[in-house]
Amino acid sequence: MKLEYYTENVNLLENFTLVREFLKELTSAKAYENWHWARWGWLMGHPNFHDDMLKMIGLWKEDNKIVGITTHDMRVGEAYLICKPDNYELLKEMVEFAEQNIASEGKLSIIVYCEDNIQKDLLKSLGYCKTDNQEVILEYDFMEEDFSYSLPDGFSLTSCKDEKDINKYVRVIWNGFENEGEPPIFDNDYDKPLRENWKEELSVFIKTPDGDYVAHCGMWYEEGEKTAYIEPVCAVPEYRNKGLAKVAVYESMKRCSKLGAKRAIVISNQEFYYKIGFKVSSTYFFWEKRL
């Protein structure tokens, strides 16, 4: 098994696809439920992701297939070690790679599934300490729950397939996550985000009587898969606590259900999701070390 930096392969699209297929193989493993293949697509398509971040990702390959990954998720100083149990002998090397390439300001956090005793024991032996910081995966079981909702009078549903207006799309996310100032303006009416398995019809918005988007749920799903991945969800501040984000999430999940999905997951521990029927699926803790 050979270690290489993500950028060593001049064909970055090939590496992207190899990683994505590797993560799809791990979909059913609780230990890596937090690294659903859609998270990889989200990371690589993030507008703030830059080339220097690619250099921090390590790949372990055998016969041109991925057997292990050490990566971050936009936050330098936080690392994820991803490999199949059959390849756990790589873990120490993966930790060393993370310490050399992902650590920040003399510190590194490694995020580990709460029941992965092998990783936890290794990190303890290397001087890492468990912290209270968590990454929680919540799930909505389509077989046990329903998608019933009602919209306030005058409000309506739409999607990126129905209305191709990139500036409305950007504005609801910009305001929904409370960014300061005005969002950037795009000259083109619409430009589909360059992200694998992002489907226009699953990106749902709630629209006011005046036509403004005020809540949004983004969804990643590939037909034939069991799990859909929610990212992002938001509502602009003045339209919160009206049930609008719930409607967006329910409608998007409903559409995934019709395509064959059995559940949806989201990386969050917000009370909002518990209130609308989500339950904890898996929990991961941050293990930290001063280098």
What series of H and E elements makes up the topology?
Answer: EHHHEEEHEHEEHEEEHEHE
Q: Pick out the low-confidence regions.
A: 190-194
How is the quaternary structure best described?
Answer: single chain
The rough form would be described as globular
Q: Output mean pLDDT.
A: 92
Q: In terms of structural class, how would the helical and strand content be classed?
A: alpha+beta
CATH architecture of the largest domain: 3-Layer(aba) Sandwich
Biggest beta sheet summary: 12 strands, mixed
Helical element count?
8
Strand order of the main beta sheet, please? 1-2-3-4-5-12-6-11-10-9-8-7
CATH 4th-level superfamily of the largest domain: Gcn5-related N-acetyltransferase (GNAT)
Helical residues, percent: 25-40%
Tell me the count of domains.
Answer: 2
CATH class of the largest domain: Alpha Beta
Distance between the termini: 27 Å
Structure description:
The two termini are 27 Å apart. This protein folds into two domains: 141 residues, Gcn5-related N-acetyltransferase (GNAT) (Aminopeptidase), CATH 3.40.630; 106 residues, Gcn5-related N-acetyltransferase (GNAT) (Aminopeptidase, 3-Layer(aba) Sandwich). It is of the alpha+beta class. Helix 1 packs antiparallel against helix 2. It has a twelve-stranded mixed β-sheet with strand order 1-2-3-4-5-12-6-11-10-9-8-7, sandwiched between helices. About 2% of the residues have low confidence. It has eight helices and twelve strands. Strand 10, helix 7 and strand 11 form a beta-alpha-beta unit.
